[in-house]
Each structure stands twice: as structure tokens, then as C-alpha cells.
Amino acid sequence: MKDNMMALLTALVGIAVSVIIMAALYAADGPARARVVKEKQEKAALAREEEAEEEEETEAYDEVTISEEDSQETENKDSEGEASSDGKKASEKDLNLVKVKPKKLKLVLGDVGNAKDGGYTMIYTDPDEESDTITRLTFNNAVVMAKEQPEEEDWLAVEAKWKDQVAYVLEDKVRTQTITLFDSGDIVRDNIVYRAYRHMGTKFKMNGDDLETGFDCSHYIHFVFSEVGLDIPDKPKDIFASGKEIKEEDARPGDIVFYDVNNGYGHVALYIGDGLAINTTGHNGKTYPMGGVHITALTYLDREEYKIANIIDQ
């Protein structure tokens, strides 16, 4: 009996010691658990904020035509001599304008090489140089930075197939730039840039002139302006002749960039601000991000010489 009591007492003491140790370990682990919980809560809150922003942007991009009342107010100001900042006198009610809110866009641009000689870095399926490669990111070509970034250091996540696939680039091979679109203060210019941005990812096709089969550079610019209700030529030299050459420091979103290729200014792009342009190319690939409709710096790959013209206010 005495032996049984001792065994029971020993067991109880062991249990008590185990409970004390577990309690101590739990108490020690409490701050770590709290940090994990806090991180999860912060990530969930950030995700909710991003969802709300996306819903707000989607609502903002609904094509709500500018009312005649708004247009009449603009006409009245013009008739009173209060011209817009560009001196435009055309009536906005005749254009297909929509109300859009500014959009902040984070970009990743290739930073290997230079505009004259070219250069590129690889885009990988995973944040690992041993993983498969998807395509190349050439000098000063841009891809959009993905919302969720990898835990691995030295890597950035990007939208490699225009929102259809997330891929990865080495951080030391690229540079980043943030631009706010649709924020020029001019509703016509903002609409032109907005229409151009909507077609990001559309493939390149020589002499192409529609969304289904693709565009070449000048037909893309012509299409974007026509969506707003502005009729411009569809050949680079004719587009240039319809406008007025301006200094780069005077360029505003919606102006046209003309590149010196094919023994003349044979390639065109749409200036979107902050030294960036949207254009469609096919000489280095016909799909995003190597070609097709995508964003580049003003000087990129092998394109250094260019002029800029204002054709909106002529």
C-alpha cells in the first residue's frame, strides 16, 4: 500500500512538473505567438484595403460619359475667355470622355545594358536562378510589380503575362519606378492615357488595327485617340505633320513620341509622364513584356533618338 502511495505521489509530482514546464514554455512563446497573430491580422487588413482599392478603381473606370451639364460649364468658361491650361477651345461634349481617378502604378524596368547596345535580364518562374525562364526583360522595358512580394531576399515579383502570371526578377538587375496615371489635370489627356493603358498586353501585329488581331505602333495610337473621339492619321509621318513639335520638358501625358527608325521617325509611342511611354513593338518580341502594348522609358533597347509632338491642342 505504501509503495502504491509513493508511486502515485511520484506520478502526481511528475505531472505537476510537466504542467509547470509547459506553462513556462507557453508563457515564453506568448510574444512570438502574438507577433504571428498580429502579422496575420495586418496581412488580412492589407488584403481588405487592396480589395477595396480594386473595387473603387473598377467603379471609377466604368465608362460614365461626361454629362452635357459638365460640358456646358466648360463651354461657358471658354466663351468667357477662361481657356483651359492648354488653350483648348474644342467642346468636350463631342468627345467620348469618362471620369477616371488617378492610379498609382509600380513598375520594374530592365537595368542591364544601355539604350545603344541593348542588354537584358531574365524573368524566372520562381525566385531561383535554377528555375525555368519565361522571357527576357530588356533595357528600360517595364513590367508591373506584383502586389505580393516573395520572402526570398534579392528578388522582386512581377506580372509577367499582364496579370495572368506572376514571375520573378533579380533585384540588382532592375530598377523600380512609381508613376501616377490619369493625373494630368486635363480630362482629355487623362482619357487618352486611360484608353491606352486599358489595352496593355495586346499583341503586336504589323499593319494590325484592332484589339483581336493586334496593332502596330501607329494604328495603336490612332485607335486610342479614336476611342476618345479624336480623329488623327494612322501613319507616323502624317501624325507628326498634324501636330506641333515641342521640347521634352514641355511634354504632357497624351503627347506623341516619334522615334528615329527606318530612316525617319517611323515608330510612335504615347507619352504618359515621368519619362515613360506606352507603345506597341514587334522587333524584339510580339507579346508582353518583350513586345505588344507595354510601357518603356523614353530611351529603351536600341532607341535613343526621338522627337515629341503635341497633336491634341492643334
Summarize the entry for a quick read.
The protein has helices spanning 2-60, 68-79, 187-198, 217-228, 236-241; strands at residues 103-110, 120-124, 133-138, 142-144, 155-159, 166-170, 174-181, 209-210, 214-215, 244-246, 256-259, 267-273, 276-281, 292-297, 306-310.
The succession of helices and strands, N to C, reads: HHEEEEEEEHEEHHEEEEEE
CATH class of the domain at 185-310, named: Alpha Beta
Question: What is the helix tally?
Answer: 5
- Give the strand order, joined by hyphens, for the main sheet: 10-15-11-12-13-14
CA-based shape:
elongated
Mean pLDDT: 80
CATH topology of the domain at 185-310: endopeptidase fold (from Nostoc punctiforme)
Number of strands: 15
Question: Radius of gyration in whole Å, from Cα?
Answer: 28 Å
Topology of this structure?
Elements: H1 2-60, H2 68-79, E1 103-110, E2 120-124, E3 133-138, E4 142-144, E5 155-159, E6 166-170, E7 174-181, H3 187-198, E8 209-210, E9 214-215, H4 217-228, H5 236-241, E10 244-246, E11 256-259, E12 267-273, E13 276-281, E14 292-297, E15 306-310
Overview of the molecule:
There is one protein chain. By secondary structure, the protein is α+β, with helices and mostly antiparallel strands. The protein is built from five helices and 15 strands. Strand 12 (267-273) and strand 13 form a beta hairpin. Helix 3 crosses helix 4 (217-228).
